[in-house]
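Workshop exercise sheet. Pairs work together: one partner reads the sequence aloud, the other fills in the structure field after running the prediction. Swap roles for the next sheet.
Pair: D.N. / O.F.
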Amino acid sequence: VVHMLFRWILRGLILSFLLKTTLSLNPDDPNVCSHWESYAVTVQESYAHPFDQIYYTRCTDILNWFKCTRHRISYKTAYRRGLRTMYRRRSQCCPGYYESGDYCIPLCTEECVHGRCVSPDTCHCEPGWGGTDCSSG
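Structure field:
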């Protein structure tokens, strides 16, 4: 019972992690980029499995009591494991942005000393400050 409970808890944690990683970013955010990703899924698939069906028919073979053996190929439904390629849309921060919680934050290579980073490598300086990193007074 403890082993089954542990497995259910572990599955729940994995599922919540997967949901968090796939659903955390807002796809309508202009700083969020998305791409299609392929992944493999194991499936049970049916197929027509051929087999040799033996049957008897009347014939002139006196040694076999007028009964002759015949063969024909017949098919029965069988199952096998197969791989199917599936696709899903993945969201991630666009180049020049990094993920912080549910948001994509612009990344400035140099720190904005007296201002804030408003887009990749672009600082918006406080009044009275200038330069690429807002350090010139």
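Discussion prompt: The mean pLDDT is 87. What would you look at next?
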